[in-house]
Amino acid sequence: MRVRLAQWETVHGVLVFGALLVLLLYVPIPLGSNRPLAWFAWEIAVYGLLAFWAIGLVAGRTRSRFAAAPARIMAVLILWLLLIRLQSLALPAGLVAALSPLAHAMQQNLGLISVAAPNTLSMDPANSYNEFLKYGSYVAVFALTLAAVTTKTRLLMLAGTVILAGVLESLFGIYSHATGYVIFPETEAANELRAGTFVNRNHFANLLTMSLGLVLGLMTGIVNGQPEGHRLKFNYYKDADLALFLLLLGTALLIVAGIFVSGSRAPIVFFSVAFGLMLVVARSVQRPSTGELVLVPLMLVGVAGAIVAMGFDESMIRLFDRDFTGGERMVQNAAGLKLLSVVWLAGVGAGNYQWVFPMFRGDDLRFVTYDHAHNDYLQSAIEQGIPVALVLALGIALILRELCRGYSARRNPVIRGVIFGCLMSTGFMLLHALVEFSFRIPANAVYFFVIAGLGIAACRIDRGEWRSRRTRVESGAKNEK
Fold first, then answer.
1. CB contact at 8 A, 259 and 270
2. CA-to-CA distance for 372 and 437, rounded, in angstroms?
3. If both were cysteines, with which of 129, 345, 389, 418 could 381 make a disulfide (CB 3.0 to 4.6 Å apart)?
4. How far apart are CA 453 and CA 312, in angstroms?
5. 129-174 pLDDT per residue, tens
6. Omega before 30 within 30 of 0, i.e. cis
7. In this predicted model, what pLDDT tens digit does every residue of 437-448 receive, in sequence order?
8. Which string of DSSP letters, residue by residue, matches 227-246?
9. CA angle, 35 then 36 then 40, to 5°
10. Phi, psi (degrees; rounded to nearest 5) at 114
C-alpha cells in the first residue's frame, strides 16, 4: 500500500509539474494571450490544473505544503482577490454612494438600475468579474509554482523553461524582422514585425528581459560554485562548468539580440537599474561574490552595445522625455491623478480605466483615449481604490522580502544564482511598471508570478540537501588534515 501511495505521489507531482511547464510555453501565444480565445484556454487549463493538485492534496496523494512565509503571501493575495470580487457584487445603493459616488452617479444617470435597487462598486461589473478571473489565474499559477517546485531538479527545469521561452520568442522576433514574416495578420491588434508573438514590441522585450535575468543569475551561480583559488578557470569536472557557462553566455547574447531587434529601449534602461540595485542588495547582505561582479563588465558592454546598435539619436532622447520628464504619457498620468483624487477609496472597478479616463482628460488629449495608464500603479489605484491596491502592494512586498532573505541565507551557489536572477527579473518588471502597463499583458504578468514563485521555491527547498561545491571542497580538505 505504501509503495502504491509513493508511486501515486510521484505520478501526481510529475503530472502537475509537467503541465505547468507546457502552460508556461503556451501562454505567450498568440499576442501575449491578449486574444480572448487564447486567454480563455489558459484560464480553463490553469484552474483545472489547480483543481487537480488540490484533489491530490485533499486525498492525501501529495505532500505539498506551504511554509509559513509563502502561506502569508498566499493569504494576502487571496484577500486581494476577494476584494476585487466584491467590486462586482450587488450592494446597497447607499453604501455604494458613500464609498464610490462617481460609480453610483454614473450607474444612475445611465439608467442601468433604479434608485432603490442594489448597486455595484464597479461601473462595469461584468468586466470586473472577468478581471477577477484573470487575476485569479495569476495567483493560481503562483501557488502551483510553489507547490510543484519541490526539488532542485524541478527548480532548474522551470528556470530552463522560462529561458527557453525567451530564446524561442527572440528567434521568432529576429526571423520576423529579417524576413518580414508575420504569423498573425497585422489587422489583428496591429501586430508588429519586431514583436515576436506579442502585439507590441515593448511587451515582447519585457518577456525577453525577464528571461535574461534568469540566464545571468545562473551564470553567477556557476562562477560562485568554483573552488577557492580556481575562480574563472572552470577546470572542475573536466571543464563541464566552462561549457555550461559559455552556453548561457550564448543564450544571453541571443536574447539580447532579440531585445535589440525589437527596438525597445526602456527595458534595457530599467534592467540596468535593477541590476545596479541587486549589487546594492548583494553588498548589504555580504560582499558581492565573484559571479555578481563578473556581470558588471558584461552589463556595461551590453548597454554600450544597445546604444550603438539602436542609435543614440533623437528617438533615445524622446524615450527620456516621454517617460520621465514630460510628454504625452506624463500628461495622461496627470489626468489619471485627477481621476484618482475622486475615486481613491473604492475605485471604478477592475478593468474599467478606459471607460472613465475620457471624463478627466484635458484639452491636450481631447481626441486621444487609452485602454491603460502608462503607470501600472496608478491604474491599479484608480480601478481598485488605494486601500485594495495597498493590499496587493503588501503581497508584492512580502515576495520581495522573502527573496532578499533567501538570497542572504542560502549558500548553495546555484540556488543563490537562481534567486539573484529572480530578483533581477521581478525588480525589472516592478521598475518598468512606473512608465508602462506591462502587467496588463497577460503573458508578462504570468511570467512575473511564475518567476516570483520560482525564487521563493529556491528559498524554501531543503537547505540541508545541497551544499556548494566550495563548501564540499573545504570540508574534504579539513577531513584530510
1. no
2. 7
3. 389
4. 37
5. 999 999 999 999 999 999 999 889 999 999 999 999 999 999 998 8
6. yes
7. 889 999 999 999
8. PTTTGGG--STTTHHHHHHH
9. 125
10. -80, 170
